[in-house]
Amino acid sequence: MEIENPPVDKSYEKPDGERRGLLLVNTGDGKGKSTAAFGLALRAHGRGKKVKIFQFMKVPTARFGEHRMFESLGIPIEGLGDGFSWKSRDLEHSAELAREGWERARAVILSGEHFLVVLDEITYPLIYGWLPLDQVLATLAERPRHVHVCMTGRRCPQEIIDVADTVTEMKLIKHAFKAGIPAQRGIED
């Protein structure tokens, strides 16, 4: 490791553009896409902002760590799916759940009642063809100017990346699962 001196001068000027709702995307094969979105939700909630989280692949009855914590804090989190596709017994039903969930998420985005709407794992129903990309893009373009939207999932469509304000790609360097260590409560769920 090379030691470096900490910066003593600010390396940027404060932007003078208008503050407005942002489209943020967390994508890539690395861990942390949802976790980063949840941190953003906590930050907004901590500032007294209204937040809503939709999880496109989680079942409505999911009780992972994030569900327990968000419920205790009063942050609504809603599972819209029936689990990962390889666990589905009926992929057409999974697709229908995604479409129904999208209609609920779309209504919340367009209502303008929330500061931040998180669309966790939305890239999967998009890349599976369960949701029409053009409708999602239209909703993002039509949303009220103050509404921030954070989208997560692997292989985010380029069309969304092109219109996003901030895109972060989580890059997999090393993962315990590939070394034979199973998922662990409190880390993966």
Explained architecture:
- The structure is a single chain.
- This protein has 189 residues and is of the alpha/beta class.
- It is built from six helices and six strands; from the N terminus they run βαβαβαβααβαβ.
- The model has no long low-confidence stretch (mean pLDDT 94).
- Helix content is 34%, strand content 14%.
- It has a six-stranded parallel β-sheet, with helices on both faces.
- The chain has helices spanning 33-46, 65-73, 91-111, 123-127, 133-142, 158-163, and strands at residues 23-27, 51-55, 77-79, 116-120, 148-152, 166-169.
- It is globular and about 60 Å long.
List the helices and strands and how they pair.
Layout: E1 23-27, H1 33-46, E2 51-55, H2 65-73, E3 77-79, H3 91-111, E4 116-120, H4 123-127, H5 133-142, E5 148-152, H6 158-163, E6 166-169
Parallel strand pairs: 1-5, 1-6, 2-3, 2-4, 4-5
Helix pairs in contact: 3-5
Based on CA inertia axes, which overall geometry fits? globular
Tell me which oligomeric state these chains represent.
Answer: single chain
- The computed structural class is alpha/beta
The unreliable regions are: none
Give the CA-CA distance, first to last residue: 33 Å
| Content of β-strand | 5-15%
* Percent helix range: 25-40%
Topology pattern, helix = H, strand = E? EHEHEHEHHEHE
